[in-house]
Amino acid sequence: MGTRVSGALRSALPPVAIFVVFALAWHVATVALAIPAFILPSPLEVANAAAANAGRLASATALTAVAAISGFGASLVIGCLIGFAFSQWTIVRTGCYPYAIFLQTVPIVAIAPLIIIWFGTGLQSVILVSFIVSLFPMITNATAGLTTLDRDLVALFRLYGATRGQTLVKLRLPAAVPFVIAGAKTSSGMSVIGAIVGEFFAGYGAERYGLGYLITLTSGQLKTAYLFSAVLCSTALGLVTFGAVSAAGNAVLKRWFSHQTHA
Amino acid sequence: MGDESTGSAALVASGVGLTYPGGIEALRDIGLAVAEGSFVSIVGPSGCGKSTFLKAVAGLIPITTGTLTVERGDSGRSGVAFVFQSPTLLTWRTVLGNVFLPTELGRAPQSRDLAKAGDLLSLVGLQEFADRFPTELSGGMQMRVSLARALITDPRVMLLDEPFGALDDLTRQRLNEDLHRIWQRDRWTGLFVTHNVSEAVYLSNRVLVMSRRPGTIAADVRVDLPLPRTPETRDEPAFGGYVREIGARLRAEA
Q: Which of A152, A161, A170 sits opposite B107 (nearest CB)?
């Protein structure tokens, strides 16, 4: 136990040290160069702004988290279903894949206003933007997972006269899990970005707002220290979401798929 | 090159040729009768089509000319089992779950015989690993699981495609000894593809040497070493004689 704690400490030490050095340099630079706080606040000012607005930041982070997790959840389920359809029927894949790529290439800031027009402001539109942004990696990974198979394993199932349903349930679906996990890791990070972009355009109304709205609000008012603290909360939310999905995914991989290394 | 004198044949190939759709001729005019209960090894240069022949016997690749029949015997056993070059285990199933997998497949799955799967694990020396996952096992142990899985359907013919090629020498010898012991016990008909001449001699009554592509049978050597073979068999002068003879035939083809 003692060695594990000291091991964790040792691996946490370098990034913490770099953070301290960076924050010190940042602080010294803002003081020495007399940079106005509305252009670049010192770390101390950011910390003060965060402390002064802790309640607002916490509720905004929670709201954005709800939108991002909902968008990610929808991507996970619907992405797997689309990937399944793509893997089972070639005609569906060849017919629909170009339109799936549309999800990846369309600038979300361009269609977000349309979504607001169609679905109104509010949580549902923010979730929808988060969903659109995070769907594509789920589709491609689930499709790849369901179509990439060990040829000898397929031969084994054929040899024993496995039905199509048996091959699907006992081979294809479980074999796709590492791919779905890889897709979920990418998708989870993107869902947070999607939720924040969605909030740039759609508020929740009536004093309830997420990080995206807080960022546009504080930048408009030149409350730069407050803006920084909102950006830090966004980063932290993205890291926590990605970290949680990665940890859950890695636990599954380690238990059932440990010969495959999905970093 | 018949073996009919020793009893009924479990496997008969006649004029078997196989050309891939791309035009590559993999096999040409293979004629062969494998006696029921015998163990036959196939050696040959890389890419000579020996694995292709094995997969054709299993019905996994269609042949283009000739006939290839796995005879229906009266031993009560039926069917063909295949052991691949890699263990081909499902990593998300336990060792025991992998062994009884074949009993779950097919249009009318047989009753899942857990006791039999357990016995087979004991046979390959893995009774204590039933509830582990394959990735927790060494390569040699994974291959033992693969062997147990092949045995669960009581196959009449066992097709083994270079199953021990990836293992170190010592592990390979141990597995050869275990495989030989299991064959002695069950007397299924074995068709074993390998690059390793000494392994082929140790296990077989008969060793076939295949030519370069298009593969055909270039030599058919009967191995008259007493059964059962033991680790000491490898030290006998006659064993070395067979290894040298087959080695020379193989070099002539390579």
A: A161
